[in-house]
């Protein structure tokens, strides 16, 4: 049996296309694996949450988006102190004294969010990746308890940095 040059070239192209497709799938799986977080789900962790101390409130920081800016993370600060990282699929919380606070995320640009925390109150700060002028940024935004309660159950606890 003899093969023509066209037949050989066609089979070679099919092989290359299969290889490129498999390489692309493997790369996507690798990126997804690098950006996912592991930890206890919010639904499981919630029952074990410590009680608030007198005169304090709680601030949850979380990030849902895994596809938009999935590989991007940024340290999150509360009043200038790093309290954790913005990781897709993750959440953490910080107990803070009642009063005025500033949450911020810094990539190339710092995005800030100011809010007042009342004693015994819980605030929810969702972070999201945003692209402006081809540069990725992490943007903090205050969301309602209802909205946060819909999004948090699927997220994993990432822990929080201990303030100095």
Key phrases:
single chain; about 160 residues; alpha+beta; Immunoglobulin-like; 3 helices; about 40% strand; elongated
Overall number of domains: 2
Label the CATH architecture of the largest domain.
Answer: Sandwich
Q: Extract low-pLDDT stretches.
A: 29-35
- Terminal CA distance reads 77 Å
Count helical runs: 3
Radius of gyration: 22 Å
Shape: elongated
Order of helices and strands: HHEEEEEEEEHE
| Portion in strands | 35-45%
Q: On the 0-100 scale, what is the average pLDDT?
A: 80
Q: What about the largest sheet?
A: 5 strands, mixed
Q: Looking at CATH, which topology of the largest domain would you report?
A: Immunoglobulin-like
Q: So what's the CATH class of the largest domain?
A: Mainly Beta
Enumerate the strands of the largest sheet in spatial order, edge to edge or round the barrel. 8-7-1-4-9
Number of strands: 9
Structural class: alpha+beta
Helix content class: 25-40%
């Amino acid at each position: 049996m003899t093969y023509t040059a066209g037949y050989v070239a066609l089979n070679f192209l099919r092989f290359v296309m299969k290889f490129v497709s498999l390489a692309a799938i493997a790369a996507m799986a690798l990126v997804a694996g690098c950006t996912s977080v592991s930890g206890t789900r919010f639904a499981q962790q919630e029952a074990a949450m410590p009680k608030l101390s007198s005169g304090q409130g709680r601030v949850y920081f979380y990030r849902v988006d895994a596809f938009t800016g999935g590989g991007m993370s940024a340290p999150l600060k509360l009043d200038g102190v790093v309290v954790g990282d913005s990781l897709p699929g993750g959440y953490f919380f910080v107990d803070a004294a009642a009063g005025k606070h500033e949450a911020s995320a810094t990539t190339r640009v710092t995005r800030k969010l100011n809010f007042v925390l009342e004693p015994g109150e819980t605030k929810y700060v969702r972070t999201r990746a945003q692209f402006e002028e081809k540069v990725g940024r992490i943007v903090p935004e205050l969301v309602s308890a209802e909205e946060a309660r819909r999004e948090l159950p699927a997220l994993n606890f990432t822990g929080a940095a201990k303030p100095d």
